[in-house]
Amino acid sequence: MEETKPESWNTPPTVRQENKKVLAGVLGIIFGYLGIHKFVLGYTQEGVIQLVLSIVTCGIAGIIGFVEGIIYLTKSDEDFYQTYQVGKKGWF
């Protein structure tokens, strides 16, 4: 018996997961004090909180964004996607 492959017109579409890991990680390291990495991930409230904290503490709270950027970049692609994009974990 010969196996037949599905025709190209008959195959289900491939769903591509949009992973923003590198973008969010780099923005977190460079512009963490502005909370831009939060806005990229769709966390508007957390981004505003990060921005306000940085203004109130004269930028010292920017260390949070720096640490988050490093955490983002050290996670595996799948772990990052499941945690921050599917699970919507806002902080660390």
Q: What report would you give on this structure?
A:
The protein has 92 residues and is mainly alpha-helical. The protein has one domain. Helices cover 57% and strands 0% of the residues. The chain is built from 5 helices and no strands. It is found in: Membrane.
Mean pLDDT value: 85
SS content category? mainly alpha
Number of strands: 0
Spatial extent as radius of gyration: 18 Å
Number of domains: 1
Order of helices and strands: HHHHH
Helix content: 55-70%
Biggest beta sheet summary: none
Span between termini = 54 Å
Tally of DSSP helical segments? 5
Secondary structure layout plus pairing:
Elements: H1 21-31, H2 36-40, H3 44-56, H4 62-74, H5 77-86
For the structure shown, list the relevant keywords:
transmembrane, mainly alpha, 92 residues, TM2 domain-containing membrane protein YozV, 57% helix, membrane, single chain, elongated, 0% strand
